[in-house]
Amino acid sequence: MVYYYPQITAEFRDNGPKHELISCALELDKLGLNRGTSGNVSLRSEQGFFITPSGINPSDLVLDSIVEMDFEGNVLSGKNPSSEWRFHRDILKNKLDVNAVIHTHSTYATAFSCLRIPMPPFHYMIAAAGGADIKCANYAVFGSQELSDNVLKSLYSRRACFLANHGMIAAGSSLKKALVVAAEVESLAQQFMILKSAGDFVLLNDAEMSEVVEKFKKYGSWSISK
């Protein structure tokens, strides 16, 4: 599949967090960022967080499918949370400016993650992830606390990271902001893989990237504020 960064069309109406999660899961599937039961989505709640369940296609999700958990890892409502609930919990618990987390197995981000390197500043839109590069969390088996610990290190001062041989994570103050970041990271991964196959290329320097990172703090969809 060739990824063309299609227009995001999901409307996150004020119908409650469970509606938002289902809407986001459906949009990820429509955009090709996830397929079938791959990936997962979470959203902060008053008691902890809501998260999509394990092993259910987005088209089959209903309100009762969504699981609520507390930050101790207890299920408050629903049945089987995503197997990746640990890194959702730890991100939301430790990054108070983040209210939503998206994990995808999108084609190009997953291919890039197998390189096990940070994505370098070949394009200024790298700053969409919050810094001068997009880091790659060290490999650990899915669903493990070790993977969650690795993710937290790679998300320090960032809004996205890759998971070695696995996929990517995008975070934001809202689901829509996290979705925009996820789509941009997938697009960047596609561009980088094309560029890498072409041979040599020039990277932006630290000063050039620092300037863009500062601009993005107050720039439209990329602003840190809600």
At CATH level 3, the topology is: L-fuculose-1-phosphate Aldolase
Largest sheet strand order: 4-3-2-1-5-8-7-6
Number of DSSP E strands: 8
Give the overall shape.
globular
Strand/helix succession: HEEEEHEHEHEEHH
Put simply, the count of helices is 6
Q: Mean pLDDT across all residues, rounded?
A: 90
CATH class: Alpha Beta
When the domains are counted, the total is: 1
Structural class: alpha+beta
Sheet-strand content, in percent, reads: 5-15%
Q: Roughly how many Å apart are the termini? A: 33 Å
User: Please, what is the CATH homologous superfamily?
Assistant: Class II aldolase/adducin N-terminal domain
Largest sheet: 8 strands, mixed
Helix residue percentage:
25-40%
CATH architecture: 3-Layer(aba) Sandwich
> Runs with pLDDT <50, length 5+?
1-7
What is the alpha-carbon Rg in Å? Answer: 17 Å
Secondary structure blueprint with pairings:
Elements: H1 17-30, E1 40-44, E2 49-51, E3 67-69, E4 75-77, H2 85-94, E5 100-104, H3 107-113, E6 136-137, H4 145-154, E7 160-163, E8 167-172, H5 175-198, H6 206-216
Parallel strand pairs: 6-7
Antiparallel strand pairs: 1-2, 1-5, 2-3, 3-4, 5-8, 7-8
Helix pairs in contact: 2-4, 3-5
